[in-house]
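## Example record

The block below lists the input lines for one assembly entry, exactly as stored, with component labels intact.
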Amino acid sequence: MSIDPEIAPQPKRLVWQEATVVAITIATPRVKIFRLRPVAWQGFTAGQHVDLRLTAPDGYQAERSYSIGSAPDRSGEIDLVIDLIDDGEVSPFFHAVVEIGDTIEMRGPIGGHFIWRAEDGGPLLLVAGGSGLVPLMSMLRYRSDAAPDIPAALVLSARREGEMIWREELLSRDRDEAGFHLFATVTRDVPATPGIHHGRVNAGLIASALARLPAPPKTIFICGATPFVDAAADLALAAGIPFERIRTERYGG
Amino acid sequence: MATTRGFSGKRPADGVGERLPPGQYLTEDFPILSAGPVPRVALENWRFTVKDGVRPVASWNWEAFNLLPKTKLTRDIHCVTKWSKFNTAWSGVMIDDILAEAGIEAPSDFVLAHSYDGYSTNVPTEDLIVGKAMIATAYEGNPIIPEHGGPARLLVPHLYFWKSAKWVNGLQFTRRDEAGFWELRGYHMRGDPWREQRFSGD
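Predicted structure tokens for the full assembly:
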């Protein structure tokens, strides 16, 4: 029996394999999206990540984890979103060197906690800071394909509108999908788009998102840099969301 | 192994590379990982219990626990998310001293460490005894902040750092090697960074 590629769990054994870069998209001035086609791919669950391994001619290796931003589907391809870290080792290589047709070693999918399947139910409250949006975007896209009746709200913080990954898609989903509501805010700029807030995620924005859900969220997923995640988790607790419903994933460690 | 076109990498400085397990990179920060919010445990409510199966064999409140003999350990630590940090300085009570104070020898070969947030992680007994691990109550000479697992965390520095359970409130000896929180979700039962035991099957 084949596994449904939309809810394929982490395999019993994670084997390194080659994946071919089939497309590269510039998402923001500092973010590129790499579409990879692994040789053998059983699918994944929204929220999971993969490990990449780069090998230099002398055998030196570097490994990093990247979340999958595309929805689980039958395409056999995944989108990895790579935020440029200036003094980094792997992200500058991806931004400056990697081209379509290159092969990259990877293994996955990985992760059994920060994941969501339609059968897990909702409502969902998703809270993202910066590129912490990536695994939550996979959940949102999957939700609209597999379970559009499950209500979801996304609280999203970015520095500037131009740094908001998938900004147009999120705005149109907010407009077109009855069960989805976007609460976006930018911290550095005064937003140009009506409906986008200014300032950090605060109790008011969380309260607005909660008020748009027909029932308290069954699960809240928070992803971003550690200070963002800690602040958002404390806001969620203060808003009365039970501790055990809050799942976090932190970038930068 | 296949080389990656155009990749040369940033080599660690002299003296660093040989201290980094495979796939790890050095960080000067102290990143934080947890599956959920940070629990805030008040010292007056804190309690640490050693169990043999379901049977409690010893228990301490914060005051009593801090009267146990303290030891300092300075070690390199390695997180499964790929960062390593060198020379982290901890102080706390060695597991050997906890067992001695409880008046027992390790009753089985496996331990589940339990935490205030509901987290658990399994560690073989032999990775906890004979000077290898402690319940840490201080980091760099100060109380451990909640984000890093305070008031007290398990410290098993020679295994991947998820085994060093934050907000620890007990050690439970088990007959079988029972998978903890991350181990049930695909992570390795032992987690030796030098053998790159990140995931089940590694």
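Chain B has a mean pLDDT of 95. Chain B is about 10% helix and 30% strand.
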